[in-house]
Each structure stands twice: as C-alpha cells, then as structure tokens.
Amino acid sequence: MTSLLMCLCCVLLELMAVHSRVLMQSRIVGGHTAAPNSIRYLVSLKSTSGQHFCGGSLVHRYWVLTAAHCNIGAEQMMIVAGDYKVNIFEGTEQYAKPRILVIHPLYNRSTNNADIMLIKLRAPMVLNKYVSLAPLPRQGTGVAEGHVCRVSGWGYNSLEGGQVPVTLRTVTVPIVSTARCNSSDSFNGNITANMICAGYSTGGKDACKGDSGGPLVCDRRIYGVVSWGNGCGDAKFPGVYTAVSRFRRWIDQTIYGSYLRCFKPWR
Ligand SMILES: *[C@@H]1O[C@H](CO)[C@@H](O)[C@H](O)[C@H]1NC(C)=O
Ligand SMILES: *[C@@H]1O[C@H](CO)[C@@H](O)[C@H](O)[C@H]1NC(C)=O
Ligand SMILES: *[C@@H]1O[C@H](CO)[C@@H](O)[C@H](O)[C@H]1NC(C)=O
Known about the structure:
Elements: H1 2-18, E1 32-33, E2 42-47, E3 52-60, E4 63-66, E5 77-81, E6 94-96, E7 98-103, E8 117-121, E9 148-153, E10 169-176, H2 178-181, E11 195-198, E12 215-218, E13 221-228, E14 239-243, H3 248-263
Antiparallel strand pairs: 1-10, 2-3, 2-5, 3-4, 4-8, 5-6, 7-8, 9-10, 9-12, 10-11, 11-14, 12-13, 13-14
Bound molecules: 2-acetamido-2-deoxy-beta-D-glucopyranose (3 copies).
C-alpha cells in the first residue's frame, strides 16, 4: 500500500516536473486570440483523458516537434492536429497516437539543455485547410537581437478544470541576446548555446505553462520550442526556448535517416 502510494506520488511529481514553468498565469501572457486555424502546423499534445498539456509543431506528416520535457510516455499521449478550441470537437481535428518518442540524447532535465523531442505518429496526418507542415530554419542560422517573433499556444492549465472552451492564443516577443539573458541580472549562467531567449524588457508578454513544446516563429520558420522560464511575463526573465536551428541536422537525421535505414536492404 505504502509503496503504491509512493509510486503514485512519484508519478505526480514526475508530471509536475514535466511542467518546468512556474505556475503563475495559465495562458499565453499579454497576447490575443488567434484567428481560427491560422497556425495550421500547431498541434496539441493531450493526455489519454483528453487534457491538453503541451504544444507541438507538425514538421512531417508522420512527425511532431516538441519539447523533451513534454514526455509523459507514448502510451499516455494523443496528438491532435487541426485544433482551435482545445476542448471542443469542431470537426477539423485529426487524432494520432505516437509510435515512438525520440528524445534528444543530450537532453538534461536539470539544466533544460537540449529540451527537444520528436514524436513519430502511428498514422500520418492529412494535410488540408486546417493542417499543414511547419517550415524549419537551416542548421546554425540565428535570429538577431530585437527581431520580433511570435509564440502561440493553448497554455491550458489543467488545475482550472476542463469545461471552458480554450481558444488558441498568440503573442509577439522580441529576441533577447544570449549575453543579456545569461547575465547575472537574468538567468545568471543557466543559458546554454542550445537556448534562445525572447521577451520584452518591460515584461508582460510571454509563453507560459501549457505552451511548452509549442513554436516560436521568426520569419515564418520555427526557430524556438517553448522550454522554460522563471514565472511568465517577468521583466527580468524572458521566456527561454530551445534553439531549433542547432538541431536541424538531428531533426533531418531522425526523420529521414530511419527511412534510409528502412530502404537499405533494397540497395
Ligand atoms: C545534467 O547537467 C548537470 C549540470 O551540468 C550535470 O551535473 C549532470 O550530470 C547532467 N545530467 C545528465 C543526465 O547529463
Ligand atoms: C541557475 O541554476 C542554478 C542551479 O541549477 C539555480 O540554483 C539558480 O537558481 C538558477 N538561476 C536562475 C536565475 O535561473
Ligand atoms: C552562460 O554563462 C555560463 C557561466 O558563465 C557559461 O558557462 C555559459 O557558456 C554561458 N552560455 C552561453 C551560451 O554563452
């Protein structure tokens, strides 16, 4: 009995650790509602009970890009594309279960380094008016400080209960230099080369809990994956994103490398 309870506790703690963002506000902070199906590559990661817990981006009909800390186990997950109001069936949704989760080998849950994961779906999503593929940046490309990008998500807080329709929200945030983000005035040495920061020096606009795994889009490409922070919309602490351009090669190798391996016997 004790061990079962302890085990349940562990599972709860694990689930709480999954949301590395501090609980302050529950949605995209300071943004506005997105137009219906305007961000067609955005997917919702839901638990098998239907709770939205993370965002993601469809990068291939079979593959979703998200954060490694969104890993709650393939068996516990459902991927929903074509969603707008996250807890209402609108007829535009497509559902797929994960086949495999590929967590980046350098992912470190205590430092949040390499917080990136690819999910291979059991069945491909169908591309249509509501579902599209996300364009990725080239390996090693950067975004200049001050460049304004856009982060979107459902930022759904499971503690609020599942009854109210939760509509997709979006907000623009400028890139903050790594030097400033990593300074003693901010994250004080905790920013690695695999992270980029974005937020206003006045705070007030940010991603938040439940937006994790979702896209930070600059010049129409997914340069960031919502990863972590210190509170949400705090002037001193911008949002921290996984720098997708550092992982472009890994993404391609993961997605296309497996196909190449599959075809090998034919050569
Ligand atoms: C994660 O990073 C910490 C701090 O650098 C290090 O001590 C630890 O060994 C790392 N863990 C893994 C699993 O790499
Ligand atoms: C930086 O990381 C250290 C060690 O993980 C932690 O104690 C500290 O609070 C962090 N500081 C900030 C500003 O994130
Ligand atoms: C952030 O600061 C720490 C401590 O000074 C340093 O080790 C690390 O390399 C810095 N990160 C980047 C991306 O420069």
